[in-house]
Write a structure and sequence with these properties.
This protein is mostly helical. Helices cover 69% and strands 0% of the residues. The chain has one domain (49-70, 98-312): MetI-like fold (Orthogonal Bundle), CATH 1.10.3720. This is Peptide/nickel transport system permease protein.
Length: 313
């Protein structure tokens, strides 16, 4: 009888391998529920703009990593015979600046600077936020009051002004810029982490971990933190374009990394020769805007993907 049913299924074009295997009672097993990350990834892929932005952002990262190999010239190489060369000049596809430096090469190195500072600063901010938020949310009491009081003081201080002060004190090196932007931008994430910990530490699985003898650090890192990653990842994705904008803003003020190219510094130089050589400002500004939009749209997609209401869409 089973052979006949199988033959009929094959004849009808049914893939018997896709059928659920029956359990010992003869009933088909129910499919296993998909995890939170799998469902979030499905929702993210369904957002075409966010998914395309993720691909574009990934390409930017790859280009930044291999910038020295891709760039036709070194960022400091000058050609005084081709100063302010227009677009399409032989050997300089996007033209040159006042010193005869290739704009395309400097854009690639500027991309490397922007992403290095952005990812480094956001990693610094994330570490600080996780430490402060986890400890304050889980320990509570006087520890929470002290940590969150310090957080409130930092929140009241303008972050951009604080970054300017730190860069002025620490210097204009790459590491100093990363540290300054990271220290100036961890407060919002710390508040989010604390709020997530306060919510999650009351869940049943946390109580079960305590009953089994798990210590505070183990509970916070192993049971609470993994379930708070979604919202933290969303804020981190929005922090990356904010850090890129902060780096460009510091460069506009003359506090950027030297002598490595920066989009902010390139835009500043281009504004001085906007009428004579508009390509000096147009291309850095365009790439800067596209990069910010790409990472922002990725953040929007992650926010929608981790939004519990997305299950009903």
């Amino acid at each position: 009888m089973g052979t006949t049913a199988t033959s009929e299924s094959l004849a009808a074009g049914v893939d018997t391998g896709a059928l659920a295997e029956p359990d010992q009672a003869g009933q088909p097993e129910l499919p296993r529920p998909r995890g939170q990350w799998a469902r979030a990834w499905d929702r993210f892929r369904a957002n075409r703009l966010a998914f395309a932005s993720l691909i574009f952002a990934g390409l930017l990262v790859v280009v930044a990593v291999f910038a020295p190999l891709i760039a036709p010239y070194h960022y400091s190489e000058t050609d005084y015979n081709a100063r302010l060369a227009p677009i399409g000049t032989e050997g300089h596809l996007l033209g040159t600046d006042l010193l005869g430096r290739d704009i395309a090469s400097r854009l690639l190195y500027g991309l490397r600077t922007a992403l290095t500072v952005a990812f480094g600063a956001e990693l610094t901010a994330l570490v600080l936020a996780l430490v402060v938020g986890l400890v304050a949310g889980y320990r509570g009491g006087r520890v929470e009051q002290v940590l969150m009081g310090f957080t409130d003081v930092m929140y009241a201080f303008p972050s951009y002004l604080f970054a300017v002060v730190l860069v002025t004190v620490l210097g204009r090196g790459l590491f100093s810029l990363i540290l300054a932007i990271g220290i100036a931008s961890w407060v919002t994430q710390a508040r989010l982490v604390r709020a997530q910990v306060l919510t999650l530490k009351q869940r049943e699985y946390v109580e079960a971990a305590r009953a089994m003898g798990a210590r505070g650090t183990t509970i916070a890192v192993r049971y609470i933190l993994p379930n708070a990653i979604g919202p933290i990842l969303v804020t981190t994705s929005f922090g990356i374009p904010a850090a890129i904008a902060a780096e460009a803003g510091l460069a506009l003020l003359g506090l950027g990394v030297q002598p490595i190219p920066s989009w902010g510094a390139m835009i500043t130089d281009g504004m001085r020769y906007l009428l004579a050589a508009p390509h000096m400002m147009v291309f850095p500004a365009l790439l800067f805007a596209l990069t910010l939009l790409a990472f922002t749209w990725v953040g929007d997609g992650l926010r929608d993907a981790f939004d519990p209401s997305g299950e009903q869409r």
